[in-house]
Amino acid sequence: MAKLQGFEFWKKTLKEARFVVAPMVDQSELAWRLLSRRHGAQLCYTPMLHAQVFVRDANYRRENLYNEVCQEDRPLITQFCANDPEVFLKAALLAQDYCDAIDLNLGCPQMIAKRGHYGVFLQDEWELLEKMIRLAHEKLSVPITCKIRVFKEIEKTVQYAQMLETAGCQLLTVHGRTKDQKGAMTGVASWEHIKAVRKAVNIPVFANGNIQHLSDVELCIQETGVQGVMSAEGNLHNPALFEGRSPPVWEMAEEYLDVVKQYPPCTLSYVRAHLFKLWHHTLQIHQDLRDDLAKVKTMEALGNVSKQLRLRCQEEITKGKDLKEEEEKGGRGPSLPHWICQPYVRPQPKEPVTNGQTGGSGERKASCQKRLLEDSDRTVDTLSKNKQKKMSRNPNKNFCPEHKPKYIKCEQCGNPKGNKCVFNLCRGCCKKKAFKEVADCPKISLGVRPTNACSRSLLHHGGGVQSLGGRHAAAEMLPAASSLTSKRRPTVGPHRKNMQVHPPYKPESDVMMLLESQVHQHG
Protein backbone atom coordinates (compact mmCIF):
# COMPACT_ATOMS: atom_id res chain seq x y z
CA MET A 1 0.00 0.00 0.00
CA ALA A 2 1.37 3.40 -1.01
CA LYS A 3 2.24 5.84 1.73
CA LEU A 4 -0.36 8.58 2.13
CA GLN A 5 0.85 12.15 1.94
CA GLY A 6 -0.29 15.65 2.84
CA PHE A 7 -4.02 16.25 3.01
CA GLU A 8 -4.79 12.66 2.05
CA PHE A 9 -2.85 11.50 5.12
CA TRP A 10 -4.70 14.00 7.32
CA LYS A 11 -8.13 12.98 5.99
CA LYS A 12 -7.77 9.18 5.90
CA THR A 13 -5.21 8.26 8.55
CA LEU A 14 -5.76 11.08 11.03
CA LYS A 15 -9.51 11.20 10.26
CA GLU A 16 -9.46 14.98 9.83
CA ALA A 17 -8.36 15.52 13.42
CA ARG A 18 -8.92 19.05 14.68
CA PHE A 19 -8.39 18.63 18.43
CA VAL A 20 -4.83 17.56 19.19
CA VAL A 21 -2.99 16.76 22.45
CA ALA A 22 0.62 17.97 22.25
CA PRO A 23 3.73 15.87 22.86
CA MET A 24 4.75 16.56 26.48
CA VAL A 25 7.82 15.10 28.17
CA ASP A 26 6.75 12.71 30.97
CA GLN A 27 3.16 13.98 30.65
CA SER A 28 1.48 12.64 27.49
CA GLU A 29 1.79 8.99 28.51
CA LEU A 30 -0.80 6.33 27.58
CA ALA A 31 -3.15 6.87 30.55
CA TRP A 32 -3.32 10.63 29.97
CA ARG A 33 -3.82 10.19 26.22
CA LEU A 34 -6.74 7.82 26.82
CA LEU A 35 -8.31 10.23 29.32
CA SER A 36 -7.98 13.08 26.82
CA ARG A 37 -9.51 10.99 24.01
CA ARG A 38 -12.52 10.22 26.20
CA HIS A 39 -13.09 13.96 26.50
CA GLY A 40 -12.81 15.15 22.93
CA ALA A 41 -9.20 14.78 21.79
CA GLN A 42 -8.99 13.30 18.27
CA LEU A 43 -5.22 12.92 17.88
CA CYS A 44 -2.41 12.44 20.42
CA TYR A 45 1.38 12.50 20.37
CA THR A 46 3.72 10.42 22.51
CA PRO A 47 6.10 12.24 24.84
CA MET A 48 9.28 13.39 23.13
CA LEU A 49 11.66 10.42 22.87
CA HIS A 50 15.43 10.69 22.52
CA ALA A 51 16.36 9.00 19.23
CA GLN A 52 19.85 7.92 20.26
CA VAL A 53 18.65 6.34 23.50
CA PHE A 54 15.72 4.72 21.67
CA VAL A 55 18.14 3.02 19.28
CA ARG A 56 20.59 1.67 21.84
CA ASP A 57 18.30 0.82 24.80
CA ALA A 58 15.70 -1.94 24.43
CA ASN A 59 14.22 -1.18 27.85
CA TYR A 60 13.70 2.47 26.85
CA ARG A 61 11.85 1.35 23.72
CA ARG A 62 9.70 -1.08 25.66
CA GLU A 63 8.79 1.29 28.49
CA ASN A 64 8.07 4.34 26.33
CA LEU A 65 6.37 2.88 23.27
CA TYR A 66 6.11 -0.89 22.87
CA ASN A 67 4.29 -1.48 26.18
CA GLU A 68 1.83 1.33 25.44
CA VAL A 69 0.28 -0.19 22.32
CA CYS A 70 -3.50 0.12 22.59
CA GLN A 71 -6.24 0.07 19.95
CA GLU A 72 -8.06 2.91 21.70
CA ASP A 73 -4.94 5.05 21.38
CA ARG A 74 -5.08 5.69 17.63
CA PRO A 75 -4.33 7.70 15.61
CA LEU A 76 -0.98 8.28 17.32
CA ILE A 77 2.18 10.15 16.28
CA THR A 78 5.55 9.32 17.85
CA GLN A 79 7.88 12.26 18.36
CA PHE A 80 11.69 12.10 18.45
CA CYS A 81 14.42 14.62 19.14
CA ALA A 82 17.57 14.05 17.09
CA ASN A 83 20.43 15.84 15.36
CA ASP A 84 21.86 13.01 13.26
CA PRO A 85 20.09 11.76 10.09
CA GLU A 86 21.18 8.14 10.44
CA VAL A 87 20.30 7.90 14.14
CA PHE A 88 16.92 9.54 13.53
CA LEU A 89 16.18 7.08 10.72
CA LYS A 90 17.13 4.05 12.84
CA ALA A 91 14.89 5.21 15.69
CA ALA A 92 12.01 5.92 13.30
CA LEU A 93 12.33 2.48 11.69
CA LEU A 94 12.07 0.85 15.13
CA ALA A 95 8.94 2.88 15.95
CA GLN A 96 7.02 3.06 12.66
CA ASP A 97 5.04 -0.15 13.23
CA TYR A 98 3.60 1.19 16.50
CA CYS A 99 2.24 4.55 15.31
CA ASP A 100 0.71 6.38 12.35
CA ALA A 101 3.49 8.93 11.74
CA ILE A 102 6.91 10.03 13.00
CA ASP A 103 7.40 13.61 14.20
CA LEU A 104 10.71 15.48 14.46
CA ASN A 105 10.87 17.87 17.41
CA LEU A 106 12.15 21.26 16.24
CA GLY A 107 10.41 23.30 18.93
CA CYS A 108 11.79 22.40 22.37
CA PRO A 109 13.40 25.58 23.83
CA GLN A 110 14.61 24.17 27.16
CA MET A 111 18.23 24.23 28.35
CA ILE A 112 18.52 20.44 28.05
CA ALA A 113 17.73 20.79 24.33
CA LYS A 114 20.43 23.44 24.00
CA ARG A 115 23.01 21.21 25.68
CA GLY A 116 21.96 18.22 23.58
CA HIS A 117 21.75 20.35 20.42
CA TYR A 118 18.26 19.43 19.33
CA GLY A 119 14.76 20.91 19.29
CA VAL A 120 14.48 24.59 18.39
CA PHE A 121 18.28 24.95 18.52
CA LEU A 122 18.47 23.26 15.11
CA GLN A 123 16.26 25.83 13.39
CA ASP A 124 19.24 27.64 11.81
CA GLU A 125 20.78 24.45 10.38
CA TRP A 126 18.59 24.08 7.31
CA GLU A 127 20.93 21.75 5.39
CA LEU A 128 21.01 19.26 8.26
CA LEU A 129 17.23 19.41 8.74
CA GLU A 130 16.60 18.96 5.04
CA LYS A 131 18.84 15.89 5.00
CA MET A 132 17.15 14.37 8.08
CA ILE A 133 13.62 14.84 6.76
CA ARG A 134 14.42 13.78 3.20
CA LEU A 135 16.11 10.57 4.35
CA ALA A 136 13.22 9.69 6.68
CA HIS A 137 10.65 10.50 3.99
CA GLU A 138 12.38 8.16 1.53
CA LYS A 139 12.94 5.24 3.90
CA LEU A 140 9.92 5.15 6.22
CA SER A 141 6.60 3.46 5.55
CA VAL A 142 4.73 6.17 7.51
CA PRO A 143 4.68 9.94 6.91
CA ILE A 144 7.17 12.32 8.54
CA THR A 145 5.87 15.44 10.34
CA CYS A 146 7.54 18.37 12.13
CA LYS A 147 6.77 20.66 15.06
CA ILE A 148 8.50 24.04 14.90
CA ARG A 149 8.70 27.44 16.56
CA VAL A 150 8.67 30.67 14.58
CA PHE A 151 11.39 33.21 13.86
CA LYS A 152 10.85 36.84 14.74
CA GLU A 153 10.47 37.63 11.03
CA ILE A 154 7.34 36.28 9.35
CA GLU A 155 9.12 36.02 5.99
CA LYS A 156 11.91 33.85 7.40
CA THR A 157 9.36 31.65 9.17
CA VAL A 158 7.54 31.10 5.87
CA GLN A 159 10.79 30.18 4.09
CA TYR A 160 11.61 27.77 6.91
CA ALA A 161 8.24 26.04 6.57
CA GLN A 162 8.56 25.82 2.79
CA MET A 163 12.00 24.23 3.11
CA LEU A 164 10.59 21.55 5.43
CA GLU A 165 7.72 20.88 3.03
CA THR A 166 10.11 20.52 0.09
CA ALA A 167 12.25 18.08 2.07
CA GLY A 168 9.27 15.76 2.63
CA CYS A 169 7.35 16.95 5.69
CA GLN A 170 3.68 15.91 5.34
CA LEU A 171 2.17 17.84 8.25
CA LEU A 172 3.49 20.89 10.08
CA THR A 173 2.70 22.04 13.63
CA VAL A 174 3.59 25.69 14.20
CA HIS A 175 4.02 27.01 17.73
CA GLY A 176 3.59 30.76 17.43
CA ARG A 177 6.42 31.65 19.82
CA THR A 178 10.14 32.09 19.30
CA LYS A 179 12.82 30.08 21.08
CA ASP A 180 13.33 32.95 23.56
CA GLN A 181 9.68 33.00 24.62
CA LYS A 182 9.67 30.57 27.54
CA GLY A 183 9.25 30.56 31.30
CA ALA A 184 8.58 34.00 32.72
CA MET A 185 9.09 35.52 29.26
CA THR A 186 6.55 33.28 27.50
CA GLY A 187 4.27 36.08 26.41
CA VAL A 188 1.62 35.69 23.71
CA ALA A 189 1.91 33.42 20.68
CA SER A 190 1.63 35.07 17.26
CA TRP A 191 -1.23 33.70 15.19
CA GLU A 192 -0.10 36.04 12.37
CA HIS A 193 2.98 33.87 11.83
CA ILE A 194 0.85 30.73 11.80
CA LYS A 195 -1.59 32.27 9.32
CA ALA A 196 1.26 33.25 6.98
CA VAL A 197 2.69 29.71 7.08
CA ARG A 198 -0.71 28.17 6.39
CA LYS A 199 -1.13 30.30 3.27
CA ALA A 200 2.37 29.52 2.00
CA VAL A 201 2.43 25.70 2.20
CA ASN A 202 0.36 22.94 0.59
CA ILE A 203 0.32 20.53 3.52
CA PRO A 204 -1.93 20.43 6.64
CA VAL A 205 -0.94 22.82 9.43
CA PHE A 206 -1.72 22.59 13.15
CA ALA A 207 -1.57 25.69 15.36
CA ASN A 208 -0.14 25.72 18.88
CA GLY A 209 -0.26 28.55 21.42
CA ASN A 210 -2.82 30.63 23.38
CA ILE A 211 -5.29 27.71 23.69
CA GLN A 212 -7.05 27.70 27.06
CA HIS A 213 -10.72 27.11 26.20
CA LEU A 214 -12.74 25.55 23.40
CA SER A 215 -13.68 29.03 22.21
CA ASP A 216 -9.96 29.70 21.66
CA VAL A 217 -9.80 26.63 19.41
CA GLU A 218 -12.65 27.84 17.23
CA LEU A 219 -11.26 31.37 17.08
CA CYS A 220 -7.79 30.13 16.12
CA ILE A 221 -9.11 27.99 13.27
CA GLN A 222 -11.21 30.89 12.06
CA GLU A 223 -8.36 33.43 12.14
CA THR A 224 -5.50 31.28 10.83
CA GLY A 225 -7.24 28.76 8.56
CA VAL A 226 -5.35 25.80 10.06
CA GLN A 227 -6.62 22.22 9.91
CA GLY A 228 -6.26 21.56 13.65
CA VAL A 229 -5.28 23.07 16.98
CA MET A 230 -2.84 21.57 19.49
CA SER A 231 -3.02 22.13 23.24
CA ALA A 232 -0.42 21.38 25.92
CA GLU A 233 -0.82 23.31 29.19
CA GLY A 234 -4.52 23.92 28.62
CA ASN A 235 -5.03 20.16 28.33
CA LEU A 236 -2.97 19.43 31.45
CA HIS A 237 -5.15 21.70 33.60
CA ASN A 238 -8.44 20.65 31.96
CA PRO A 239 -8.52 17.34 30.05
CA ALA A 240 -12.13 18.13 29.06
CA LEU A 241 -11.04 21.31 27.23
CA PHE A 242 -12.01 19.94 23.80
CA GLU A 243 -15.47 19.09 25.14
CA GLY A 244 -16.04 22.69 26.11
CA ARG A 245 -16.54 21.72 29.76
CA SER A 246 -14.94 22.80 33.01
CA PRO A 247 -15.76 19.88 35.34
CA PRO A 248 -14.86 19.59 39.03
CA VAL A 249 -11.21 18.69 39.46
CA TRP A 250 -11.93 15.55 41.46
CA GLU A 251 -13.98 14.16 38.57
CA MET A 252 -10.97 14.30 36.23
CA ALA A 253 -8.51 13.20 38.92
CA GLU A 254 -10.51 10.12 39.89
CA GLU A 255 -11.13 9.12 36.28
CA TYR A 256 -7.42 9.50 35.51
CA LEU A 257 -6.44 7.31 38.48
CA ASP A 258 -8.92 4.67 37.27
CA VAL A 259 -7.30 4.68 33.80
CA VAL A 260 -3.87 4.33 35.41
CA LYS A 261 -5.10 1.19 37.21
CA GLN A 262 -6.56 -0.24 34.00
CA TYR A 263 -3.39 0.29 31.96
CA PRO A 264 -0.38 -0.40 34.20
CA PRO A 265 2.42 0.22 34.65
CA CYS A 266 2.49 4.00 34.94
CA THR A 267 5.41 5.83 36.53
CA LEU A 268 4.58 7.32 39.93
CA SER A 269 6.22 10.65 39.06
CA TYR A 270 3.96 11.03 36.00
CA VAL A 271 0.81 10.54 38.08
CA ARG A 272 2.02 12.90 40.79
CA ALA A 273 2.79 15.59 38.21
CA HIS A 274 -0.69 15.30 36.68
CA LEU A 275 -2.38 15.60 40.06
CA PHE A 276 -0.32 18.69 40.83
CA LYS A 277 -1.51 20.25 37.56
CA LEU A 278 -5.17 19.32 38.07
CA TRP A 279 -5.27 20.47 41.71
CA HIS A 280 -3.00 23.48 41.10
CA HIS A 281 -5.44 26.18 42.21
CA THR A 282 -6.74 24.20 45.20
CA LEU A 283 -3.22 23.40 46.42
CA GLN A 284 -2.50 27.12 46.68
CA ILE A 285 -5.05 27.16 49.53
CA HIS A 286 -4.49 23.76 51.17
CA GLN A 287 -0.72 23.88 51.56
CA ASP A 288 -0.60 20.97 54.01
CA LEU A 289 -2.05 18.59 51.42
CA ARG A 290 0.36 19.98 48.86
CA ASP A 291 3.22 18.77 51.05
CA ASP A 292 1.53 15.38 51.47
CA LEU A 293 1.09 15.02 47.72
CA ALA A 294 4.79 15.69 47.22
CA LYS A 295 5.93 13.13 49.81
CA VAL A 296 3.75 10.03 49.34
CA LYS A 297 5.38 7.01 47.71
CA THR A 298 2.53 4.86 46.34
CA MET A 299 -0.38 5.16 43.90
CA GLU A 300 -2.82 4.39 46.70
CA ALA A 301 -1.42 7.22 48.81
CA LEU A 302 -1.71 9.63 45.87
CA GLY A 303 -5.37 8.61 45.54
CA ASN A 304 -5.95 9.22 49.25
CA VAL A 305 -4.54 12.75 49.06
CA SER A 306 -6.78 13.46 46.07
CA LYS A 307 -9.79 12.23 48.06
CA GLN A 308 -8.91 14.52 50.95
CA LEU A 309 -8.76 17.45 48.56
CA ARG A 310 -12.17 16.51 47.20
CA LEU A 311 -13.68 16.34 50.71
CA ARG A 312 -12.31 19.75 51.63
CA CYS A 313 -13.72 21.27 48.44
CA GLN A 314 -17.11 19.68 49.06
CA GLU A 315 -17.10 21.10 52.58
CA GLU A 316 -16.56 24.57 51.11
CA ILE A 317 -19.44 24.01 48.70
CA THR A 318 -21.85 23.03 51.48
CA LYS A 319 -20.93 26.20 53.34
CA GLY A 320 -22.60 28.35 50.75
CA LYS A 321 -20.69 28.19 47.49
CA ASP A 322 -23.07 26.79 44.90
CA LEU A 323 -21.12 24.69 42.42
CA LYS A 324 -23.88 24.58 39.81
CA GLU A 325 -24.16 28.34 39.59
CA GLU A 326 -20.43 28.66 39.09
CA GLU A 327 -20.37 25.93 36.45
CA GLU A 328 -23.26 27.50 34.54
CA LYS A 329 -21.24 30.68 34.18
CA GLY A 330 -18.84 28.68 32.01
CA GLY A 331 -16.66 31.72 32.33
CA ARG A 332 -12.97 32.21 32.74
CA GLY A 333 -10.39 33.16 35.29
CA PRO A 334 -11.50 34.64 38.58
CA SER A 335 -15.21 33.76 38.13
CA LEU A 336 -14.43 30.05 38.53
CA PRO A 337 -13.82 28.59 42.01
CA HIS A 338 -10.56 26.80 42.63
CA TRP A 339 -12.12 23.32 42.51
CA ILE A 340 -13.16 23.73 38.86
CA CYS A 341 -10.77 22.68 36.06
CA GLN A 342 -9.40 25.88 34.59
CA PRO A 343 -6.23 27.09 32.88
CA TYR A 344 -3.24 28.47 34.70
CA VAL A 345 -2.45 31.93 33.40
CA ARG A 346 1.18 32.97 33.79
CA PRO A 347 1.76 36.52 35.01
CA GLN A 348 2.61 38.77 32.08
CA PRO A 349 6.14 40.18 31.81
CA LYS A 350 6.48 43.87 32.67
CA GLU A 351 6.89 44.55 28.96
CA PRO A 352 4.73 42.29 26.74
CA VAL A 353 6.76 39.94 24.61
CA THR A 354 5.65 39.14 21.10
CA ASN A 355 7.78 37.00 18.78
CA GLY A 356 10.87 37.42 20.90
CA GLN A 357 11.05 41.22 20.70
CA THR A 358 12.02 41.95 24.26
CA GLY A 359 12.41 45.47 25.56
CA GLY A 360 14.01 46.72 28.72
CA SER A 361 16.97 44.34 28.87
CA GLY A 362 18.02 45.92 32.17
CA GLU A 363 14.72 44.93 33.78
CA ARG A 364 15.01 41.42 32.39
CA LYS A 365 18.51 41.02 33.82
CA ALA A 366 17.29 42.27 37.18
CA SER A 367 14.45 39.74 37.17
CA CYS A 368 16.87 36.94 36.33
CA GLN A 369 19.32 37.68 39.12
CA LYS A 370 19.69 35.09 41.84
CA ARG A 371 17.76 35.68 44.99
CA LEU A 372 19.47 37.98 47.45
CA LEU A 373 21.34 36.60 50.41
CA GLU A 374 19.83 36.85 53.84
CA ASP A 375 19.75 40.16 55.66
CA SER A 376 22.11 40.93 58.47
CA ASP A 377 19.57 39.58 60.98
CA ARG A 378 19.50 36.33 58.96
CA THR A 379 15.78 35.97 58.47
CA VAL A 380 14.82 32.59 57.07
CA ASP A 381 12.40 34.09 54.51
CA THR A 382 15.28 35.39 52.40
CA LEU A 383 17.05 32.02 52.16
CA SER A 384 16.58 29.44 49.42
CA LYS A 385 15.12 26.08 50.39
CA ASN A 386 18.51 24.43 50.06
CA LYS A 387 20.10 26.93 52.46
CA GLN A 388 17.21 26.54 54.88
CA LYS A 389 17.89 22.80 55.00
CA LYS A 390 21.56 23.44 55.71
CA MET A 391 20.62 25.87 58.44
CA SER A 392 18.30 23.34 60.08
CA ARG A 393 21.25 20.97 60.36
CA ASN A 394 23.65 23.67 61.51
CA PRO A 395 21.95 26.68 63.16
CA ASN A 396 25.28 28.54 63.30
CA LYS A 397 25.75 28.35 59.54
CA ASN A 398 26.45 31.75 58.00
CA PHE A 399 25.94 32.38 54.28
CA CYS A 400 27.26 35.94 54.17
CA PRO A 401 30.27 36.12 51.78
CA GLU A 402 31.99 38.65 54.03
CA HIS A 403 32.12 36.15 56.88
CA LYS A 404 33.51 33.28 54.85
CA PRO A 405 37.13 32.39 55.70
CA LYS A 406 39.72 33.76 53.28
CA TYR A 407 42.10 31.21 51.81
CA ILE A 408 45.42 31.87 50.12
CA LYS A 409 45.20 30.48 46.60
CA CYS A 410 47.61 28.04 45.01
CA GLU A 411 49.96 29.86 42.61
CA GLN A 412 49.26 27.34 39.84
CA CYS A 413 45.64 26.17 39.94
CA GLY A 414 43.82 28.65 42.18
CA ASN A 415 42.65 26.11 44.77
CA PRO A 416 43.37 26.81 48.45
CA LYS A 417 47.07 26.26 49.12
CA GLY A 418 48.37 23.91 51.77
CA ASN A 419 48.74 25.60 55.14
CA LYS A 420 52.36 24.49 55.52
CA CYS A 421 53.54 24.21 51.91
CA VAL A 422 56.80 26.10 51.38
CA PHE A 423 56.07 26.48 47.64
CA ASN A 424 52.66 28.16 48.17
CA LEU A 425 50.92 25.34 46.30
CA CYS A 426 47.97 23.07 47.00
CA ARG A 427 48.68 19.47 47.88
CA GLY A 428 48.16 18.22 44.32
CA CYS A 429 50.44 20.81 42.69
CA CYS A 430 53.03 20.34 45.42
CA LYS A 431 53.13 16.61 44.73
CA LYS A 432 53.64 17.21 41.00
CA LYS A 433 56.44 19.70 41.70
CA ALA A 434 58.15 17.24 44.04
CA PHE A 435 58.07 14.53 41.39
CA LYS A 436 59.14 16.64 38.39
CA GLU A 437 61.82 18.77 40.03
CA VAL A 438 63.16 16.27 42.61
CA ALA A 439 62.08 18.74 45.26
CA ASP A 440 60.85 18.04 48.76
CA CYS A 441 58.32 19.92 50.83
CA PRO A 442 59.18 19.01 54.43
CA LYS A 443 56.09 20.72 55.83
CA ILE A 444 53.67 18.54 53.92
CA SER A 445 56.03 15.54 53.93
CA LEU A 446 55.78 15.02 50.19
CA GLY A 447 58.82 13.58 48.52
CA VAL A 448 59.62 11.58 45.40
CA ARG A 449 60.44 7.98 44.79
CA PRO A 450 63.95 7.35 46.13
CA THR A 451 65.16 5.57 43.03
CA ASN A 452 64.23 8.53 40.86
CA ALA A 453 65.74 10.96 43.34
CA CYS A 454 69.05 9.18 43.49
CA SER A 455 69.33 8.45 39.78
CA ARG A 456 68.35 12.00 38.77
CA SER A 457 70.77 13.43 41.32
CA LEU A 458 73.54 11.35 39.85
CA LEU A 459 72.71 12.44 36.31
CA HIS A 460 72.46 16.06 37.42
CA HIS A 461 75.86 16.07 39.09
CA GLY A 462 77.88 14.07 36.59
CA GLY A 463 75.78 12.54 33.87
CA GLY A 464 76.47 9.04 35.22
CA VAL A 465 79.32 7.27 36.99
CA GLN A 466 82.40 7.14 34.82
CA SER A 467 85.12 6.49 37.34
CA LEU A 468 85.86 5.52 40.85
CA GLY A 469 85.78 9.21 41.70
CA GLY A 470 82.14 9.28 40.72
CA ARG A 471 81.50 6.60 43.32
CA HIS A 472 82.77 8.84 46.08
CA ALA A 473 80.69 11.77 44.73
CA ALA A 474 77.57 9.61 44.73
CA ALA A 475 78.30 8.32 48.19
CA GLU A 476 78.35 11.89 49.44
CA MET A 477 74.79 12.34 48.11
CA LEU A 478 73.41 9.24 49.85
CA PRO A 479 72.44 11.01 53.09
CA ALA A 480 70.48 13.57 51.09
CA ALA A 481 68.73 10.85 49.10
CA SER A 482 67.90 8.86 52.19
CA SER A 483 66.40 11.95 53.83
CA LEU A 484 63.81 12.13 51.04
CA THR A 485 62.36 8.79 52.09
CA SER A 486 62.88 8.80 55.80
CA LYS A 487 59.45 10.27 56.43
CA ARG A 488 57.55 8.08 53.98
CA ARG A 489 57.91 4.62 55.43
CA PRO A 490 54.61 2.76 55.23
CA THR A 491 52.54 2.27 58.33
CA VAL A 492 50.23 -0.64 58.94
CA GLY A 493 46.80 0.20 60.34
CA PRO A 494 44.15 -2.16 61.70
CA HIS A 495 42.58 -2.49 58.24
CA ARG A 496 45.86 -3.75 56.75
CA LYS A 497 46.69 -6.55 59.18
CA ASN A 498 46.52 -9.22 56.46
CA MET A 499 48.76 -7.34 54.04
CA GLN A 500 52.39 -8.32 53.56
CA VAL A 501 54.73 -5.80 55.19
CA HIS A 502 58.09 -5.19 53.56
CA PRO A 503 61.17 -3.95 55.42
CA PRO A 504 62.06 -0.27 55.16
CA TYR A 505 63.49 0.73 51.79
CA LYS A 506 67.23 1.50 51.70
CA PRO A 507 68.26 3.62 48.72
CA GLU A 508 71.93 3.00 49.43
CA SER A 509 71.65 -0.57 48.10
CA ASP A 510 70.44 0.51 44.65
CA VAL A 511 73.07 3.22 44.36
CA MET A 512 75.90 0.91 45.39
CA MET A 513 74.78 -1.74 42.89
CA LEU A 514 74.77 0.90 40.16
CA LEU A 515 78.24 2.12 41.14
CA GLU A 516 79.69 -1.38 41.23
CA SER A 517 78.31 -2.22 37.78
CA GLN A 518 79.78 0.99 36.33
CA VAL A 519 83.20 0.31 37.92
CA HIS A 520 83.15 -3.29 36.64
CA GLN A 521 82.44 -2.16 33.07
CA HIS A 522 85.33 0.31 33.05
CA GLY A 523 87.82 -2.17 34.59
Cα end-to-end separation? 94 Å
Number of beta strands? 9
Mean pLDDT, as a whole number? 81
Radius of gyration: 34 Å
State the gist of this model.
This protein is of the alpha/beta class. The protein has helices spanning about 5-15, 30-40, 50-55, 60-65, 85-95, 110-115, 125-140, 155-165, 190-200, 215-225, 235, 250-260, 270-280, 280-285, 285-295, 300-320, 325-330, 360-370, 385-395, 425-435, 450-460, 470-485, 505-520; strands spanning about 20, 45, 50, 75-80, 100-105, 145-150, 170-175, 205-210, 230. Helix 9 (about 190-200) links the parallel strand 7 (about 170-175) and strand 8 (about 205-210).
What does this structure look like?
The relative contact order is 0.07. The chain has 23 helices and nine strands. The chain is of the alpha/beta class. The chain is globular and about 85 Å long. Mean pLDDT is 81; it is low at 327-334, 358-381 and 446-499. It has helices at 6-13, 30-38, 51-56, 58-64, 85-95, 111-116, 126-139, 154-167, 191-200, 214-224, 233-237, 249-262, 268-278, 280-283, 287-295, 299-318, 323-329, 361-368, 385-393, 427-436, 450-462, 468-485, 507-521, and strands at 19-21, 43-45, 49-50, 76-81, 101-106, 144-149, 172-175, 205-208, 228-231. Strands 1-2-4-5-6-7-8-9 form an eight-stranded parallel barrel, surrounded by six helices.
